[in-house]
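Run log, item B.
One chain of 151 residues. Sequence copied directly from the ordering sheet:
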Amino acid sequence: MTGWTHAGEYLPWLTGTGFHVAHSSTQSAVSDGLAGAGYALATADTSTADSRYDAYRSIADALYLPTGSGANLDALVDGLRELSERWPDAARLVLLWSGADALVRADLLGWTTLGQALMTAVKHAWSPLRGQPVVFETVAFVGDGFGADHL
């Protein structure tokens, strides 16, 4: 079993635990650093999402969640509880979410509820009650003006 670690141990400039907001210019450094640390990478791009539901679908697809997991927030939350089943060979998994700032601009409530769902998934993924525990984190990439972590 993998002990609890977080992305900030591998990328000390990245703050937070479980859910991080990083500047889009750091995407390659984050991807390379976490891949080198043994994280499985799931990538989602919601920069052209027209609604929160498009963002849910993009994230559900990136995480290989069951069909229908992107239909609404409840379905996505249910799907996120199955991360260890969907990623059985991954001891550490990170969602690299580019274009996250588009959802902030278009639907702040959608951003907030999706962020909360992803943060809750961190706790559920690590729980031995949900199959093999997996360390799960999200890095949401945003542009200037969003208080993101920089190198």
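Observations after the first pass:
- The first strand starts at residue 19 and ends at 23.
- The CA atoms of residues 126 and 133 lie 5 Å apart.
Flagged for discussion on Thursday.
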